[in-house]
Structures are given as structure tokens and as C-alpha cells.
Amino acid sequence: MKYNVKWHEKALKDLGRLDKTKARAIVEKVRDYLAKDPISFGKPLKGLFKGMYRYRSGDYRVIYAVDKAENVIMVLKVGARKDIYR
Fold this sequence. Notes:
Blueprint: E1 4-7, H1 9-17, H2 20-34, H3 38-41, E2 43-44, E3 53-57, E4 60-67, E5 72-80
Parallel strand pairs: 1-5
Antiparallel strand pairs: 2-3, 3-4, 4-5
């Protein structure tokens, strides 16, 4: 079962700040891998971000939430590992 991917306005802004080839690679990985099985490919977050997941793409992280009832992944934030959790 494939999930629909929705990009939050903030995540799109984050992608716009990245190099185009890196941004394209992140979008392709989300579409090709994460949309197929977001629970298995991602790792659950703890603390303030509990209930959300992260997906690694090189040195970048994709923070997202999963709505199993609607089969939707909402990508909330994209950024470098050192800055993403701030």
C-alpha cells in the first residue's frame, strides 16, 4: 500500500534552500522509498518530537508524520542533521 506524500510549506522552503541536486535526491527518496513503507524506513523520534519520524538521506534528515487512517505522509521539515532538531 503506497502512501500519499504531502509537503508542508516549511519543508518546501527548506528544500528551496538546498542545492538543487540534493533537493531532487531527497524528493526522489521520499517518493520511491518512504511512500512505500514510512514506518519501516523511518525511525520514531522521542521527547518533543514524539509521534513523528525521521528519514535519513545522506547528511540530511526528513522529519515527517504518518496518518495511517488516511494513508498520508506529511513531510514537516528537511535539513542538515546538525540543524534539524532546533
